[in-house]
What does this fold into?
Amino acid sequence: MAQGKEPMKKELNVTVLIPCRDGGPTLRTTIESLLNQTVKTSVAVADDASLDDTPIILKELSKTGRVQSIRYPKREPKNYARVPVLLNMLLNILSPADFYMISGDDCIYPPEYLAKLISFMRNDNVDLASGCHDAKNYKHLTLPSGSGRLVTATLFKRITPLPSSIGWESWMIYKALYLGRRVSVYPIEFKHSRKYSVKSTWTFGQSSYVNGVPLIFTLLRTIKNVTVSDLGFINSLAVLLGHIEYYIRKVEKLDTAPFTRELQLQRLRKSIASILGLQRDLSSYG
It folds into this structure.
């Protein structure tokens, strides 16, 4: 009796969402690095009323049949809270995919970035993950990066549309954890060409506040950034000041804030217990 043929494996596909304003100097390189992935990839760009050659670049790349875009009609003041608005616009034009990725317009991904990330995620049963900007400091990373962030289709449908908040990026992670999904970061390096400004790192602190992160954690994060990250002292301090600003203003928090606060406090209690246990172990040798 002849054996039947094995069913063909379905080819995975990834759709990448890119919010963009005046991305002319870097956008083309970013998209080309995505189109050159070893995994089937398409790109959707939300053009935030760019005034440079971004529309021309998008028109040229659309000829590949794998790049589409939508343009926000009005030039409004730039604000990080605008990013989820742009990403939500793209939900109307996305084709079905197995995974969705969010990227900045200034990143370059090695050809096997997505393939490696998907392999790690499937092996670890993870629904949201990213690589990192600096593999040397990988051991210090605890949460996925904003750019290069890959999300399974199942989770993506549960967490979109995104909240129109400055804290949307971290909210995705905490919402995933709230829903019982796993998140991770892996030592798969990609390049992020745009340097962090004081204005951008200030929003990191604001995001921490609206997500319910206790102030003590942002303080500890600031100390950690000063010692092990490449943010520098001023940018690291800006994270703390951004949190304090929103604390004083009592800005409205996101829906997962109570969950996030308790999650972080549990982590703090475990860390303290671990330190105290280590100290007791060391004292027994005295």
Q: What stands out?
A: Residues 13-192 form a domain with the Spore Coat Polysaccharide Biosynthesis Protein SpsA; Chain A fold (CATH 3.90.550.10).
